[in-house]
Specification:
Length: 71
């Protein structure tokens, strides 16, 4: 998978948007995501939970980041 490719398991448009943003930025706080993507906190928390539950995003000290997966 290239650095900016979105996993096939990420099906929703918002999930793809959040995932791609995190892949591009490295890490982001909830506030960063809200400002950059214009999504509500509730929407972001729902999307991030889904991405975390499927193993694509992890919580960090700085906020959230994508999980590196072996090719």
């Amino acid at each position: 998978m290239s650095q900016r490719q979105i996993p096939n398991e990420v099906e929703s448009a918002r999930g793809k948007l959040v995932y791609l943003y995190l892949r591009t930025e490295g890490t982001a706080s909830l506030t960063d995501l809200q400002g950059a993507l214009g999504l509500s906190q509730l929407t972001l928390l729902t999307v991030l939970r889904s991405l975390r539950d499927t193993g694509h995003v992890r919580r960090t000290n700085e906020g959230f980041a994508t999980v590196s997966r072996p090719a």
